[in-house]
Amino acid sequence: AQSVTQLDSQVPVFEEAPVELRCNYSSSVSVYLFWYVQYPNQGLQLLLKYLSGSTLVKGINGFEAEFNKSQTSFHLRKPSVHISDTAEYFCAVSDPPRGNEKLTFGTGTRLTIIP
Amino acid sequence: DAGVIQSPRHEVTEMGQEVTLRCKPISGHDYLFWYRQTMMRGLELLIYFNNNVPIDDSGMPEDRFSAKMPNASFSTLKIQPSEPRDSAVYFCASSFPAGLDEQFFGPGTRLTVL
After folding, report:
1. Helical H runs in B22-102?
2. Biggest alpha carbon distance in chain A?
3. Second label for A75, Cα 20 to 30 Å away, from A93, A104, A109, B3?
4. CA–CA separation, A88 vs A94, rounded Å?
5. How far is Cα of residue B37 from the mean position of the Cα atoms in its chain?
């Protein structure tokens, strides 16, 4: 079964600074990878997804992630964060060909933006 | 569309009581998922349905938990009897036919068992 590791449980970042949230997954022949964001007291929503093709994936709110097969990583980045980016971020993986049917989530990274 | 609807948003009950959580998926979605989120265990998939049929319930913690989906627009998660360790936020999510689409999450039900 697939597994996901998010090494950083909390990441504090100054406003307008860049951020990288790390995600590593267990090795497999091929995977689908996702980043979800959870704002306080809300459900999760999709930021971006990698299914195939270009390894650089762009998502909503200026976020992007790069799929690195050799390092089994899918790190999330943003060049300049805003106060509104304060949230918890979850990396998730699924096994094709099941696609998005069943996701395995990481433990989450809490991003705190410092004014 | 109003999105995935869950009720109640908050539930406080006493140990031993029956608790029923409700979910209305987005119209047209034929996958429905129940998750539980706690500080200790993170986000766990409890069970999911496809076309109202339970596909995988391996995440259901024990027999005290049960889930049903009597039709395409309604699902319940029941805990009987409830215990303090069941306190968590329970999310329902739905998605389009299996493939590559995202899961749409409801706002969650925060359950506190005293």
Report:
1. none
2. 43
3. B3
4. 20
5. 11
Tens digit of pLDDT for each residue in B82-110? Answer: 999 999 999 999 998 655 668 999 999 99
Contacts of A7 in chain B (CB under 8 A): none
pLDDT at A99: 62
Query: Which residue in A has a C-alpha nearest to residue B92's C-alpha?
Result: A43
- Among candidates B93, B33, B89, B86, which has minimal Cα distance to B64? B86
Q: How far apart are the first and last CA of chain B?
A: 36
**Taking CB atoms and an 8 Å cutoff, what residues of chain B touch A102?**
45, 48, 56
Would you say A19 and A13 are in contact if contact means Cβ atoms under 8 Å apart? yes
> How does residue B1 score in pLDDT terms, banded at 50, 70 and 90?
low
**3 state SS of A87:** strand
